[in-house]
Amino acid sequence: MTTLDAAQLDAWLARLGIAAPPSPTLPALDAVLAAHLASIPFENVDPLLRRPVRIDLAAVFDKLVTRRRGGYCFELNTLLSAGLGALGYEVTPLAARVRWGVPDHVTTMTSHMLLRVEVAHRSYLVDVGFGGPTPFRAMPLSEPADDGFPYRLVPSPVPASASAFHSYDLQARGDAGWIPVYRFDLTPQPPIDFEARNWYVSTHPDSVFLQRLMAARTDDGTRVTLANGELAERAPDGSVRRTHLPHADAVVQALSERFGIVLDDALRQGLRAALPDLLAPATASAGS
């Protein structure tokens, strides 16, 4: 596993607002996870604007730490994996099939990267790279989460779990009950397999990352997400507050102010050119 060197580790921790390298304990893991979700947002500006996305550690570090951008799962969890490895955690990359917003009968590809992290001889799910609801602390794989925690892991349905490894469904609490987020098993994933998945989601015409602007960050347990001009704030109790952003300037402002994404002039111009077409359907729908 590739890890951050000493200088990179210091810069990454500074980006997270953590003063010194912590010991590899569960409380420290939860603190790093919360800081990562709050400080480095999920966003897909590059593929939306048809810019290449590299997921080697050097490129990811430059984008997310040096240039203070965000990224998506392959970038965010690559950085987290390298940082946790440098802190002394044992980390195994995994892959998941997204189920959020997907009908039960539709099969999805393993397009999402997440992490298995070992702490004191126990395994935990850790993920900072999902653009929707995301657990804001590590989730144990071998025991249930606290009753009040708005996420849970349940065994996948038998037809969907044909694997040599245990298969899990991550679910989020919603107004009407538990909602599937993604499905995964414990098969370790080599880096080369993520290269092919990244190429698909960042370049294929059918990829949602080329069709919709998305951003997300967690603020004190509230998951704030953006889909084109629709801003949603999902509280820990599952309730959701929604705000419509009516024009491109409002969206660009939200990316900077609500999500903390540093946008240079070229990115701002590209977004202002792309957003009117993306916002048009929502505008028409809101007016009908």
TrEMBL record:
The keyword Zinc does not apply. It comes from the Bacteria. One of its GO terms (molecular function) is arylamine N-acetyltransferase activity. Its EC number is 2.3.1.5. InterPro entries: Arylamine_N-AcTrfase, Papain-like_cys_pep_sf. Keywords: Acyltransferase, Plasmid, Transferase. It is an enzyme of class 2 (transferase). The keyword Transport does not apply. Belongs to the arylamine N-acetyltransferase family. This is Arylamine N-acetyltransferase. It comes from Cupriavidus neocaledonicus. The gene is nat.
